[in-house]
Structure prediction request, 268 residues.
Amino acid sequence: MNKAQLPIGIFDSGIGGLTVAKAIEEALPHEHFIYFGDTLHMPYGDRSPEVIRGYCRQIVEFLIQQPVKLIIIACNSASALAAGYLRQLYWQEVEIMGVIRPVIQEMINQHVKKLGIIGTHATIQSGIYPLLAQEYHSEMDIFQMATPLLAPMIEEGLFDSEVSKALLHQYLSNPGFSDRDAILLACTHYPLIKNEIDAFFNGRKLIFDNAGPLAKSAKKYLSENGLLAEKRMGENRFYVSAQTPHFAKTASMFYGGPVEIETILLND
Ligand code: DGL
Prediction:
């Protein structure tokens, strides 16, 4: 089979990564994908680098077996802690793209000077954003803060509510954010509260998320490597490692439409 006809593999710690899958679908309507959400081991955001790398390795092996032509790590925590490790292991087999470099490049292109970042403990503690900004010789000044309660809150559907208002106020009132010209929502779940965050800052800050820049980078990679599909060759497939309560509802909240999901257990 011509490699261009293969699906793209997308994975996340859970179903929040469907926000990234959605952006891929919008940017690349001729492509189809296989999505894997590691709901059995979610949240990744509170786990150690070694544990996250082990989970990701199993998922990448599963996706390589399908096979896929490109693997996208939709999860910020996994991109922060496992992308380099996975690329070293699998560079001969498949291109593996994380969500972090594309958005850093986009923010540098847009001349962001003072950036505020919110994300999970794993993402923030990894220090990956300041590190990569430095690697690109950017002088962007970065203030970052872990906001660990936001992802579970969103998963419970508690956004656009008094709860989300109070929690966002608690986190974003930190003086570190006040002089920022842009805020990066460095977590799969946060696009769902983008409007609330924008409103908190009275529309005065640029708000970035990872999904759009990632989709642009994926398109560029596929086109430069002759891997763009000319027409859609298959249906999207969605897998998770465990079904969770209210699953279908939560999945369609992140994806913006109904999703048929199969459960599959990878070797532990
Ligand atoms: N997908 C994770 C991320 O983007 C958030 C949820 C989790 O902690 O697993 O960092």
